[in-house]
Amino acid sequence: MAGRRLDCKEQRPSSGRRDAISRRAVALWLRLLRLTNAKGQELGEELRARDLSPAQFDVIAQIGSSEGLTQRDLAQRLIVTEGNITQLLDKMQQRGLVARHPEGRCNHLWLTEAGREVYRTAVPAQERHISKFFEVLSDEEQGELLKLLRKLHRRP
Predict the structure, then answer these.
(1) Is 17 within a domain?
(2) pLDDT tens-digit series, residues 3-50
């Protein structure tokens, strides 16, 4: 065995499969990023036409579906700091889209009439755009994709 030279496949029998799995994982990750970026830009353009940022839209969608939620709950739902939410809400309050109602140590959030109008028009438009994107997948495929993405999201 001392004089016999092994070719690459014999020297690293498991590394080829490991490398293929790693390349596939990287390819999946990059595909998800490209897809998210491309579709996010499309959705962002629609929002900019309404003079909204994606973050502002998210706030309107969250408050519109759960009026009265607290500022802290909103920060947790959006996975941002309370400081970031405070700045975002300050701007949206100045634009007349949201209202804060202090109750004890909490601010409860409500949409103003202008905010409700944005909610009534922007949310369905975004939902239509997103639904159109996913219509290429069957209901079963959409369910499976959702299940797989949840599994990835729960991974530590």
Answers:
(1) no
(2) 555 555 555 545 667 787 789 999 999 999 999 999 989 888 989 999
Express as a percent the part of the chain with pLDDT over 70: 90
- Which CATH number fits the domain that encloses residue 138? 1.10.10.10
Q: What is the pTM of this model?
A: 0.75
Phi, psi of 4 (to 5 degrees): -85, 130
Q: Which helix (H) or strand (E) holds 30?
A: helix 15-49
CA torsion 126-130-135-138 (nearest 10°) is -120
User: Residue 45: how many CA atoms within 13 Å on its side-chain side?
Assistant: 6
The number of domains in the chain is 1
- Boundaries of domain holding 57: 53-154
